[in-house]
Structures are given as structure tokens and as C-alpha cells.
User: Which sequence fits this backbone?
């Protein structure tokens, strides 16, 4: 399965994720949903917050697709949760990639997180 198929089928195909993106650990975008362009620099900020020091992101926020989100939680070495109004996202780190799943108004944040985390678990089990 290609990276784009994971975005289209495993994330967007659940109807629990509105937008999604998969990046390498250097921030390079492997695949994303239409119109959801997370820049490599934006992905690198997420990776640094998850793997190093999340403190700056708590007061500066993070950007996804050039939109600023407020960070609400970071699980060191694992994930970052952010939101803006009734929308938000979860970024989950695996050994080789960063998955970003975003939800929109009317969607359940917990369901979006669960779907994104489940795909990350699949990647971990399979060495990604």
C-alpha cells in the first residue's frame, strides 16, 4: 500500500479524520489529503516538540497548513494534540514517520485521535 493509500483509506476513509498527512522524520511530506499542505518546517516543529522540548509550543502554538493551533497536550516521545476552536489535530510519531490526523467541526476529537493512533500502531508493528 502506498503512503497516499494510507491517507485516503486508513485515515480519511474512516470518516473520523477530515484531513491527514504523513511525513518523514526530516519533515518531508510523503502524502497528504487534498488541500492539507503541512510544510516540512511545520512537521519539524511537531517532531521536535514530541522528541525534545515541548515547552515552546505551549506558548507559541504550532502551525499546520499555515494555520496556528494551540497545543493542549504532548505525550513525550509519542504524540502532540492541538486545537483551534472546534477543529484540531493529533500528530503521532513512529520510528520512521509522523502521522497527522485533523478533525473538523462536528467530528469527535477522540475518534480522530483513535484512528490516527491505530494507524501509528500498525506502522510500529511493521517496523515503520
Assistant:
Amino acid at each position: 500500500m502506498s503512503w497516499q493509500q494510507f491517507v485516503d483509506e486508513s485515515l480519511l476513509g474512516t470518516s473520523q479524520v477530515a484531513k491527514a498527512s504523513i511525513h518523514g522524520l526530516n519533515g518531508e511530506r510523503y502524502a497528504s489529503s487534498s488541500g492539507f499542505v503541512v510544510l516540512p518546517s511545520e512537521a519539524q516543529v511537531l517532531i521536535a516538540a514530541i522528541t525534545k522540548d515541548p515547552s515552546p509550543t505551549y506558548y507559541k502554538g504550532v502551525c499546520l497548513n499555515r494555520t496556528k493551533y494551540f497545543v493542549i497536550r504532548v505525550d513525550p516521545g509519542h504524540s502532540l494534540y492541538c486545537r483551534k476552536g472546534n477543529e484540531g489535530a493529533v500528530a503521532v510519531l513512529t520510528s520512521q514517520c509522523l502521522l497527522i490526523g485533523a478533525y473538523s467541526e462536528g467530528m469527535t476529537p477522540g475518534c480522530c485521535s483513535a484512528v490516527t493512533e491505530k494507524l501509528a500502531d500498525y506502522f510500529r508493528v511493521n517496523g515503520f
Observations:
- Residues 109-125 form the longest helix (17 residues).
- The chain has one domain: 3-126.
- DSSP finds four helices and seven strands in the chain.
- The chain has a mean pLDDT of 96.
